[in-house]
Every structure is written in structure tokens, then in C-alpha cells.
């Protein structure tokens, strides 16, 4: 399991635009680099990132081999109601990781 770091405020005012930053520790191996034995290291990349706010998809990104190790994404979200944000990374070798954060919205 990879380590995911999500930085976002725990609370916001209704209508406020908040910044969310998400990083996951992952090697993002392209499959082109040779290993110590001279054979290519098997491809292992995260192919997709999604964030849902109270079950509704708010951002999705398709990632490709050119993305560096430990992919970092930052985006903005309008806080409308309190609830859960669900962050999902999925990729090669049946890799899937989901993290959840709560957002409290005050009037």
C-alpha cells in the first residue's frame, strides 16, 4: 500500500473556494528503464486519479508514463455542503488506493 498525503482545510464557509493538494508515494515505473540485470523493469504506473465530493465526481485525471514518481495534484473546490471527499488512485497490477477526508461547511 502506498502512502497518500492530502492537504486540505478541515472546515470552510459555504461558497468558499478551497485548495486541495494530494500526493501519493509511488515509483511510477515506465517499463523502459533497465534494471541491474539489464532487463527492463516491469511497468507500474498509476493510470487514474479521481476525487468525489459527497459521491459526486468533481475531478478526474488520466496519468501516463511521463508523470514523475510520487504524483502530486492540486485543484480547487467550491465548498457547498459538509461531507466526505473520497480520493482514489488506480493503476497497473490491480493497484487501487482510496483515502477519505471530511469537510465541515459553516453557513
UniProtKB/TrEMBL annotation:
* SUPFAM superfamilies per the UniProt record, alphabetical: E set domains
User: Which Gene3D superfamilies does the UniProt record give?
Assistant: Immunoglobulins
Domain of life of the source: Bacteria
Domain annotation Sulphur oxidation protein SoxZ: ranges? 9-100
Q: Which InterPro entries match?
A: Ig-like_fold, Ig_E-set, SoxZ, SoxZ_dom
Q: Write down what this protein is called.
A: Thiosulfate oxidation carrier complex protein SoxZ
Amino acid at each position: 500500500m502506498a502512502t497518500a498525503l492530502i492537504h486540505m482545510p478541515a472546515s470552510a464557509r459555504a461558497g468558499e473556494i478551497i485548495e486541495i493538494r494530494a500526493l501519493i508515494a509511488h515509483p511510477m515505473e515506465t517499463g523502459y528503464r533497465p534494471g541491474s540485470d539489464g532487463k527492463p523493469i516491469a511497468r507500474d504506473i498509476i493510470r487514474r486519479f479521481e476525487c468525489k465530493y459527497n459521491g459526486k465526481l468533481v475531478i478526474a485525471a488520466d496519468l501516463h508514463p511521463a508523470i514523475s514518481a510520487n504524483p502530486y495534484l492540486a485543484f480547487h473546490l467550491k465548498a457547498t455542503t459538509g461531507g466526505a471527499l473520497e480520493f482514489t488512485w488506480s493503476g497497473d497490477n490491480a493497484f487501487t488506493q482510496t483515502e477519505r477526508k471530511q469537510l465541515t461547511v459553516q453557513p
